[in-house]
Design goal:
The chain is α+β, with helices and mostly antiparallel strands. The protein contains eight helices and seven strands, in the order ββββαββααααβααα. Helix content is 56%, strand content 12%. The protein has a three-stranded antiparallel beta sheet. Strands 1-2 form a two-stranded antiparallel ribbon. The N terminus is likely disordered. Bound molecules: zinc ion. Zinc ion binds next to loops.
Length: 218
């Protein structure tokens, strides 16, 4: 693939100066010589690491959603719930807006980000750019600020501490899964998806279709 030289230009977001983008050695960064603003960092070429972390986070996410978070025992009356169960309870208590907000920030958006990241990371690792690459990357950048698993985790912990005086609180599997997920998501979020555009620019688009044409011809 011939890359036009104009594709490799980068503008300083502080002073609008244009520069030709060059590959950097690992752990280095490019700064604007005019104003000193950070232009871009060297890509951590380690796609494997972020790919493995995203996959692990997705598996932990499923565990966190599938199992109860805590069990409450008050005078022999026990009750336990999953996150989905809590959202359904909110909805049936006429708190529909809060139910929707909790659903979006703790289930829908984090899940969308993890699935979308895997969708672009897996093919890039295999050496090709998946269809809809640009839209998927923009989706990741759109949903990222709305994923609030860490806020949810903090809320749960504060609630549990307050509940201890009323009932016996027994932590269940999903509580530990959410704890682990909070740390994993922090690692995944530290990865800048813009780096994937640079990697994709050096890869061919949709090699499978090309391979099929070759097979038909022969
Ligand atoms: Zn500048």
């Amino acid at each position: 693939m011939n890359v036009n030289e104009s594709d490799e230009l980068i503008a300083c977001h502080e002073c609008d100066a244009l520069f030709t983008k060059r590959a950097l050695p690992t752990h280095s960064k490019a700064k604007c010589p005019q104003c000193g603003a950070l232009l871009y960092r060297a890509m951590s070429g380690n796609l494997d690491r972020i790919c493995a972390m995203t996959l692990a986070a997705l598996i932990t996410f499923v565990i966190a959603q599938a199992f109860p978070i805590v069990e409450l025992d008050a005078n022999g009356l026990t009750s336990e719930t999953t996150l989905i169960g809590a959202i359904v309870a909110l909805w049936s208590e006429q708190m529909e807006i809060i139910a929707v907000l909790v659903f979006c920030s703790t289930i829908l958006f984090p899940l969308a980000e993890l699935v979308a990241l895997l969708y672009v990371l897996m093919p890039l690792r295999a050496g090709f750019v998946p269809p809809g690459f640009n839209i998927v990357l923009r989706t990741i950048q759109f949903v990222r600020p709305w994923g609030m698993i860490e806020v949810f985790m903090l809320g749960v912990l504060v609630t549990l501490v307050k509940m201890i005086s009323i009932a016996r609180v027994i932590p269940e599997a999903a509580l530990f899964a959410f704890g682990a997920l909070t740390l994993m998501v922090a690692v995944v979020v530290s990865f800048d998806p813009r780096a994937l555009w640079d990697i994709a620019a050096r890869l061919p688009q949709k090699p499978k279709r090309a391979a099929r044409h070759v097979r038909q011809r022969s």
